[in-house]
Amino acid sequence: MIKAAVTGNIGSGKTTVSRIFEVLGVPVFYADIEARQLYLCESVKNEVRQNFGSNVFDAYGEVDTKRLATIVFGDRSKLLLINEIIHPCVLRRYKEWLSNYRDLPYTMHESAILFENRLESHYDLIINVTAPPELRMARIMDRDGVEREKVEARMAHQLSEEEKNSRADFVITNDGKQLLIPQVLKIDKQIRKWKK
Asked: Among 18, 40, 67, 150, which one is most buried in terms of CB atoms within 10 A?
């Protein structure tokens, strides 16, 4: 089974691309969804409390991820710290998840910060979804209802489009002009022919 990954900067449309792969019968592991679920685990809550204090928790004792995001995207050392807490757990869950799909041609792991966390070695091939910065900005502001400065803060912690494209095996352009489905179909066909 080939372990593929799809990545892309915030607002690039990697989730949309992942959903097209799902329609083609490819199981997709969504790292962001798994990470959000980890904040419900007591062991993770304890680590967050020890490292970030009680002010990142709501009245019900749950991690307020928006408050936490404001802190970590404003301080690189804190972003690295939260990634050290969350990402090893996500990777463990991914490895467990993989065991369910051993007989399939390939699986897909969707992760926004795959290159930033130096995770390339865990995959046989990587797809990067790219889109112009202004388009990505507009998508995120519209989707999340956040102001430009907050989106810029998040973008600042990701590698450039050019860097990600150069390190990926495949690139999908999601600029609103080129159709996504034909690009995904072409890559799907190539992966299914590819022998590990």
From this structure: 18
d(CA 83, CA 77): 10
User: What fold does the segment set 2-193 form as a domain?
Assistant: Rossmann fold (3.40.50)
Contact (CB, 8 A) for 138 and 12: no
Each domain of the chain, given as residue ranges in start order, spans 2-193
Instruction: Give the Cα separation of 173 and 35 in Å (integer).
Output: 26
Biggest alpha carbon–alpha carbon distance for the chain: 53
Helix (H, G, I), strand (E, B) or coil at 159: coil
Per-residue pLDDT tens digits of the chain, which is 196 residues long: 999 999 999 899 999 999 999 999 999 999 989 998 999 999 999 999 999 999 999 999 999 988 998 898 888 899 889 989 998 899 999 999 999 999 999 999 999 889 988 899 999 999 999 999 999 988 988 888 888 888 887 888 789 999 999 999 999 999 999 999 999 999 999 999 986 5
> In degrees, to the nearest 5, what angle opens at C-alpha 72 toward C-alphas 51 and 126?
110
Predicted model pTM: 0.87
Q: How far apart are the first and last CA of the chain?
A: 8
Write the DSSP assignment of 118-133 as a string of letters. T-GGG-SEEEEEE--H
